[in-house]
Design a protein that fits this description.
single chain; about 130 residues; alpha/beta; 4-stranded parallel beta sheet; 4 helices; 4 strands; about 15% strand; globular
Amino acid sequence: MGTKAACAGGVTTVFDMPVVGEPYTFDSDSLQSRIKNATDRLWTDCGFLGGVQGGRVEEARNLAENGIFALVATYGNPQYYGMSPIRLEELDQLEPILVSSGLPLIVSCEKCDESKLKARSPYSFPDHEFCE
């Protein structure tokens, strides 16, 4: 995990990304496996993040109930390090999970084909769809 080097550099807290290392943290079992693997190996505080897979949004509820620090999703790229992107309607499905758990959602908006970008004001996001 590199927490010994982080600690030596003055870092006190790191976050475990859901798609860096295996098993990927997309469900409660993989989260528990990563926590177990980190036990007695951390030199800093560590927050575990849970990945939200497109088409598997309901699994986010189980992650939220099992001690993650935040949920992470990708939007726009067909496949990013094994994560299936979420769709706009799935963001709506996540809302009650986020509200009830109080967890933040970190969304990585990966680059799509620039020729498919819709013209828009840089300050308005009326439909959340930037790629066709």
